Amino acid sequence: METRGRVLVVDDKENILKLFARLLGDTYEVTCAEDGARALALVAAREFDVVVSDVRMPGADGFEVLRAVKSRYPDTEVVMMTGYATVPDAVEAMRAGAFDYLQKPFLPEAPVELVARAMERRRLRLQAEVLGPPSPGTGFSFTGAVGRSAAMQEAHRLIEQAARLDITVLLTGETGTGKELAARAVHLNSARRERPFVAVNCGALPTELVESELFGHARGAFTGAAQARAGLFEEAQGGTLFLDEVGELPLSAQVKLLRVLQEKEVRRVGETRPVQVDVRVVAATHRDLRAAAAQGRFREDLFYRLNVFPVQLPPLRERKEDIALLAAHLLDKHCKAMGRTLEGSTPEALRVLTGYPWPGNVRELENALMRAVAVAAGPHVTERDLPPEVRERQEGALPGGAAKQLPYRDALDLARDRFTREYLTALLRDFEGNVTRAAEHAGIERESLHRLLKRHGIRSEDFKPR
């Protein structure tokens, strides 16, 4: 079975959604969202290869969709749709990382050709990113392993070994340490490389839809199930299924996952006939699953089924000697993506990068450097091009009066970011990591609070009772 690329189409006009489903449905797996809010929920749960979004929509607009996609999945290609009057908006979106724009009205072949080009660009970027230049003495490499630190080299050795073995792999490590890149490296260096790689964030799936997404459902199995649908296990047939944040699965789904791993078969919701599957599972979590199993929050038998080949990915603060190499690689990557030419980072910028603790790890570093590439005015990335929170939060390096050395606007940004970080930390501590209650108390939307937490590298999980 040939891998079908995933396309998300976002538009508040039903006729546009139907048109895209008809034009692309035979070639790709097309998911439609009637507004930006629905698109944000879908992007939080699953990765798409290409997102096609209208610019102007009620609620969350195309720019918000673009930012959410690029923040979570930098390699996903985004195409913006626009009417003639808003072409400048689309051009601005391209500067922010969009692949191209589609002007309405358009001929039927235009979106077909544009999505095909976006798919090919994504395929080539992922191949270059995951199967990068081989390490000395081996034909295997992946971008997440950039660095000379002993911890990263050990992780690299284990991932190379896991790729050669057709067994279940459990990747552990903090958020942003490169677990999905490692999973892709395992797949693309394995005997299953020509078959599908399917990724899903278990923590972002609505509880009532977890089993349907993973195992599929029969027609009429529940309200809204207008037709039968294969689950992600069947979609990944012959290839690899990446279960990110597997520790967030509800216990009912854990029971069914255990059976799939044991029996190599799935039962769609509402059906009794099993379907045989041949899928390698790579799971990932930032939680201590052994401790969760001891506390009854994760099935112990499932933990042992997943923990066949464990690989721990180290946090960036424990391999600071790799930051300069990673920064050079990421600058080159985003310069190419944005069509810019920069000669690297100044010594002062590298000092700041090395002094920051990177609670969001490589993902946070990448976001910081993506911003720096976008705003840099000279031939080098300077300290001032880095986000204010990175400039401010140096481990033991910022004297109390450092702000007065900065221009007023930068000093104000630092004060605002410091206040926001302290406020969010106190808020989550008071509500024990419950984002819904914290948002209600703060008088802001839950999604807005999530975005603030992500921007400041704060995890609600760290405040929940152990």
From TrEMBL:
GO MF terms held by the record: ATP binding; sequence-specific DNA binding
Stretches assigned to the Response regulatory domain: 6-119
What CDD domains does the annotation carry?
AAA (cd00009)
Pfam families listed in its UniProt record: AAA_lid_14 (PF25601), HTH_8 (PF02954), Response_reg (PF00072), Sigma54_activat (PF00158)
Residues annotated as domain Sigma-54 factor interaction: 145-374
SMART domains, A to Z: AAA (SM00382), REC (SM00448)
- GO annotations under biological process? phosphorelay signal transduction system; regulation of DNA-templated transcription
Nucleotide-binding as UniProt keyword: yes
Q: Which SUPFAM superfamilies match?
A: CheY-like, Homeodomain-like, P-loop containing nucleoside triphosphate hydrolases
- UniProt xrefs under InterPro entries: AAA+_ATPase (IPR003593), AAA_lid_NorR (IPR058031), CheY-like_superfamily (IPR011006), Homeodomain-like_sf (IPR009057), HTH_Fis (IPR002197), P-loop_NTPase (IPR027417), Sig_transdc_resp-reg_receiver (IPR001789), Sigma_54_int (IPR002078)
The name under which this protein is listed is Fis family transcriptional regulator
